[in-house]
Amino acid sequence: MTWFSHEDTRIDRATIEDLVEQTLTEAQDRLGITAYKSVLLLPPDITRAHAGVGWITEQFYQLLEGQGADVHVIPTLGQHVPHTREDNRWMFGSIPEDKIHVHDWKDGVTNVGTVPAEFVREQTGGAVDWEIPIDLNTMTVTEDWDLIINIGHVVPHEVLGFANHNKNYFIGLGGKRLLGASHMASAVYGIENNLGNLIAPVRHCFNYAEDHFLQDLKDVYFQVVMDYDDDGRLVHTGVFVGDDLETYLDAARASKAQNITAFDEPVDKIVAVMQADEFRATWVANKAVYRTRMAIADGGELLVIAPGVERFGEQPEVDELIRKYGYLSQSEVLELYKTQADMQDIPHGTAHLVHGSSEGRFTITYAPGALTREEIESVGYSYMSLEDALERYNPEVMKDGWNEMPDGERVFYISTPSAGLWATKEKLGDR
Predict the structure, then answer these.
(1) Using alpha carbons only, how large is the chain's radius of gyration in Å?
(2) CA dihedral 295, 296, 297, 301 (to 10 degrees)
(3) How many domains does the chain have?
């Protein structure tokens, strides 16, 4: 069951800091912790910094350090680019750099078990028939922690239905085999079948892995939900704390109610902005594609204004894969996957080729900070210069929701696509 939760139209920082303190008090009582000696904090990486998870992590650190604990932090990067020292300072404030560790998704993992192929097949309705090896960050699973605190933002997600909870372990701290098997499973099952479902098939598999392989960990989930206020600002509306699946479900239900925008009719044009200090590759900036694809009309357009984007992949080999093949339909990727060794070597990168495609339904136009027209067009996208995009769709002027341009063009503007899901009522169906 959920230990406790707090919901309101706006939860201020002071209240959240009180809830952080309450989490530590209740964890001692509920988990039988006499004193905090060694604690691990697992926050998301910089691409979710807008959710306040950095200062929440810092608050946990300061309280625990004040109690004499040896506290360590591992941003749950998955295979994203590691933070720089400046990134860590910007996100985590006063936490010392030597206490923040980089997850090594290739060589820094230990196998703790395997989700059987039979279970994966059952959860995906027969679409996927491979096992999922559970290779996790070695420091997390082999050291004796008094408590592990998972911190994160619950929001619609393309692989798991909703983000956070045990995603911190199985994606954020996963190894190459785990990342590949799970991402490819989600691509085969279909991104639009995952989005907005409380428990998508890969989430079922992760729940199986947590139940079978992580039961010895003393851990707790500190999850936040956010929504737009009347002034169009993202604010915290929920905090959910506990150590089981119900904690996730309570938060995901709140996110489902607050973070999904349903349209009666498909939208002809959406303009989305991906913040420069968080999104530096199309790998992460394509959240704009994932979260809006179910809302865009056939023949419509998504314009992604991404001043920080300077590459395609988060890792060199993934960047190379995207540049070689471009963004392709599911059927095209699955056909190539049968014979192409480079696709088979990094299946999480191969899955991204599907996730970032419009399946030929609508145009994806990028206005990047540091990729050329030739580069953008080579992967199957259209190009608009950043200067032209910012001049026409100035974020200082545009308002979230419908905007009518001086020449009569009507567009739907989204300032933070990673904070929600936009879809037609027809495509949402009964989620």
Answers:
(1) 21
(2) 170
(3) 2
- β-bridge mates for residue 149, sequence order: 41, 220
Residue written as tokens 């002809």?
268
Predicted structure pTM score: 0.93
Task: Note the pLDDT tens digit of each residue in 387-403.
Answer: 999 999 999 999 999 99
Strand partners, 5: 240
Give start and end residues of each alpha helix (H) in 338-431: 341-345, 347-355, 373-378, 386-392, 425-428
Give dist(CA 59, CA 47) in Å, integer: 19
Helix (H) or strand (E) holding 249: helix 245-258
190-200 pLDDT tens trace: 999 999 999 99
* Residue 47: per-residue pLDDT: 85
Q: Which two tokens stand for residue 213?
A: 């392989």
Q: How far is CA 127 from CA 70, 109, 110, 121, in A?
A: 45, 28, 28, 7
Q: Which helix or strand (DSSP H or E) is residue 109 part of?
A: strand 109-115
Q: Which of 258, 278, 301 is the last residue of a domain?
A: 258
> Which range of residues forms the domain containing residue 8?
2-258
